[in-house]
From TrEMBL:
Domain PpiC: 344-442
Pfam families per the UniProt record, alphabetical: Rotamase_3 (PF13616), SurA_N_2 (PF13623)
Transmembrane segments: 12-33
Places the protein is found: Cell inner membrane
GO function term, MF aspect, one: peptidyl-prolyl cis-trans isomerase activity
Keyword Isomerase belongs to the record: yes
PANTHER family per record: PEPTIDYL-PROLYL CIS-TRANS ISOMERASE D, PERIPLASMIC CHAPERONE PPID
Keyword Cytoplasm: no
GO cellular component: plasma membrane
Highest taxon of source: Bacteria
The protein's name: Periplasmic chaperone PpiD
InterPro entries: PPIase_dom_sf, PPIase_PpiC, PpiD_chaperone, Trigger_fact/SurA_dom_sf
Length: 699
């Protein structure tokens, strides 16, 4: 016990200190490293009116959009340009959701389930439904596809069909909310009758004006001195004109890995080795698709629609002969004439489809098609048979008729019959959709059509050429570590210095480079004057230096100096010229004081800010219709756009323009305002909202 007591007495204070340190450490650990810690990296990519968008949700939305986009792409891939477009669209959707939902809640706008169902299954489907359920064969809305979804959704064990329907319902709901809101705002647009009458009165007469003009150019710019304080004061007085968004400026040098003469010779050698096989092969389609960048098109192109270099020479090739190689962008190409014939550039046909895609056996479908064909040949009404038997909803309302061209996206068998068979021909044609009873009704504008095979090889830089470009870029980046040496070396070496100005945080493309997201991100992490490492962008290597940083807010004097200096100098000139006029009692006195002639301007109208021989002078136009001066007095000196003016109205006279009905004028004005609302309403609401975009830190 005595030992224990001694330990208690001797180490009590130490134990208390250790416990206190442990508690404090625990608290600090939570503060610095916990979920709400001070130093935990934020995962918020943006914020709108206090509503945050987490990077995980943003990525999920982007992925969902990409999946939908892949289904629309021929090869199922999404390139970087499309991916950036998706990022912007998803971000704008988030902005719209947050900004508009506040408006909907304030006004009590909603969309009921019954509305949504009616817009999907009703007689007047929503445009989103029409777009989603368009028959790919006909290009027309197919209501039977919607009915099939309704019938089969309960049997879908995967749940994918239900998810797709929910997406459509959500899209329709958002669209309807927007439509209701915009419609409500448009109903509030009102142009008062008294205002329309006043506008008519203002525009009912024109003025003949005597004036003297002292141009600002009479005073040399070199005689007007301005200070930075004066420029800053002007900016502060006109902040709305000098709002700026965050941006960067980068100067850069590009070391391009351009193909050398040896690289071109290698591509020519490849074509030479393939030319003999191209000349003799029986499978031209397979040969071209295996060996060429340009894939084989098994169709005819009108001679007038041929869009290739050396088109006239290629168009006149005999069948079976080869021309080339010739240069097309960065490729060397051989062209072989496969066939030529005369064909129309447009055809009108009508058809009846007996579909085999709804479970009807092929043999029965074929017999039914033959029976319908026999009935038509026996004198039956084609349109009546379309209405009774055709499985193509896209052409039922037109009697089965289509106008098609070689570019119309119809199946090959259908198009071949339409263009190859003569006018009046009726027959049964089988396609992937079933059996078509087709009649060629008319063919127009017959001319030469060509089938050409193109064998192309890109002229790419070799590894040796590419290595030389990279070595030059690396040497440049290694020897220049600040803006001063960067610029000096460029001058000594004779390199081409380029400028990428106004780079925004989420920019992905730089003019002259292309996709350059890494360079933009570097610009936002670097300090002014920093020189980058080597960036690789396709066939070029880039080294940049950060030359400018612009923060969001009001522009600084240095950023807008030329523009502001011109305005401040103009104001100083105006003050001098007005003092020189010395409060003239009349226009003649003004002319004497200024040593300027009295000139005349006719047909000055209140609604037009332009005056013949003077240009854009709205203040002068306004003064011409100042009732306090009328025709009795000369005006005070007017600080105009191009100079200082003193005017006197000699007379007013009717314009002679026909007077429009007030109701028509009001209606036209209101319709014009309503038309602008569709484009401008959301932008106005966006400016009134608090928006923070942090995406540049994540992408």
């Amino acid at each position: 016990m005595s030992v224990i007591q001694k330990i208690r007495d001797k180490y009590a204070v130490v134990i208390v200190v250790v416990i206190c340190v442990a508690i404090v450490s625990f608290l600090l650990q939570d503060a610095f490293f916990g979920r709400n810690s001070l130093f935990r990296r934020s995962t918020t990519v943006g914020e709108v009116n206090g509503q945050e968008l987490d990077v995980a949700e943003y990525q999920q939305r982007i992925q969902s959009e990409e999946n939908g986009m892949r289904q629309q792409m021929p090869n199922g891939t999404v390139d970087e340009q499309t991916r950036q477009y998706i990022r912007e669209r998803v971000w704008n959707q988030f902005l719209n959701e947050q900004i508009m939902q506040v408006q909907y809640d304030k006004l009590g706008i909603n969309v009921t389930e019954a509305e949504v169902k009616d817009l999907i299954f009703g007689k007047n489907p929503h445009p989103i439904v029409v777009q989603q359920f368009t028959n790919p064969q006909t290009g027309q809305y197919d209501p039977t596809m919607v009915q099939q979804i309704a019938q089969n959704i309960g049997q879908d064990q995967t749940g994918r069909m239900r998810q797709e329907v929910l997406k459509i319902e959500d899209a329709i709901t958002k669209s309807q909310l927007q439509e209701k809101y915009v419609t409500l705002v448009k109903q509030a647009v009102y142009y008062p009758k008294w205002l329309a009458a006043q506008q008519q009165q203002d525009n009912s007469q024109s003025a003949t004006v005597s004036y003297i003009n002292i141009p600002y150019s009479n005073i040399p710019d070199s005689t007007i001195k301005v200070t930075d304080n004066e420029l800053s004061a002007y900016i502060n007085e006109h902040k709305s004109l000098f709002k700026t968004e965050e941006a960067r400026q980068v100067a850069y040098v590009s070391f391009d890995a351009l193909p050398s003469a040896a690289d071109t010779a290698a591509a020519l050698q490849q074509l030479a080795e393939l030319k003999a096989e191209m000349d003799t092969t029986d499978d031209i389609e397979g040969f071209v698709n295996r060996n060429s960048e340009i894939k084989y098109y098994d169709g005819y192109v009108s001679k007038t629609a041929l869009m290739v270099p050396q088109k006239d020479t290629i168009a006149n090739l005999p069948v079976g002969t080869i021309y080339g190689p010739y240069v097309d962008n960065n490729m060397l190409v051989l062209a072989k004439m496969i066939d030529r014939k005369t064909m129309p550039d447009s055809v009108k046909v009508r058809h009846i489809l007996v579909s085999t895609q709804q479970g009807l056996p092929d043999s029965i479908a074929h017999k039914r098609a033959d029976s319908i064909k026999n009935a038509i040949q026996g004198g039956a009404d084609f349109k009546a048979l379309v209405a009774q038997y055709s499985d193509d909803p896209g052409s039922k309302n037109t009697g089965g008729e289509y106008d098609i061209t070689p570019a119309t996206p119809f199946v090959k068998e259908f198009k071949d019959f339409a263009f190859d068979q003569p006018k009046g021909k009726l027959d049964v044609v089988k396609t992937q959709f079933g059996y078509h009873i087709i009649e060629v009704m008319d063919q127009k504008n017959f001319g030469p059509a060509l089938k050409v095979a193109y064998l192309s090889k890109p002229v790419d830089a070799s590894k040796e050429t590419d290595s030389k470009a990279y070595a030059a870029a690396s040497e440049f980046a290694g020897q220049n570590h600040d803006q001063k040496t960067f610029d000096k070396t460029i001058q000594e070496k004779g390199y081409n210095k380029r400028l990428a100005d106004n780079l925004r945080p989420m920019d992905f493309v730089i003019t002259g480079i292309g996709q350059a997201r890494d360079l933009v991100r570097w610009a936002y992490d670097a300090k002014k004057g920093d020189v980058s490492n080597v960036f690789t962008f396709e066939d070029r290597y880039v080294v940049g230096v950060l030359t400018g940083i612009r923060q969001e807010g009001t522009a600084t004097v240095d950023q807008v100096r030329p523009q502001v200096e011109a305005e401040v100098k103009k104001k100083k000139k105006a003050t001098q010229l007005i003092e020189k006029l010395n409060n003239p009692a009349s226009i003649d006195a003004a002319a004497k004081n200024a040593n300027q002639p009295v000139l005349k301007a006719e047909n000055v109208t209140f609604g037009t800010p332009f005056i013949p021989s003077l240009g854009f002078e709205p203040k002068v136009v306004g003064a011409a219709f100042n009732k306090s001066w009328g025709t009795a007095k000369s005006s005070s000196p007017i600080e105009g756009t191009a100079g200082v003016y003193v005017i006197k109205v000699d007379s007013y006279q009717p314009t002679g323009a026909p007077v429009q009905e007030l109701s028509v004028q009001r209606s036209a004005y209101e319709q014009n305002i309503k038309g602008m609302l569709d484009q401008q309403l959301f932008e106005v609401l966006k400016k009134q909202s608090s928006v923070k975009d942090n995406r540049g830190k994540f992408f």
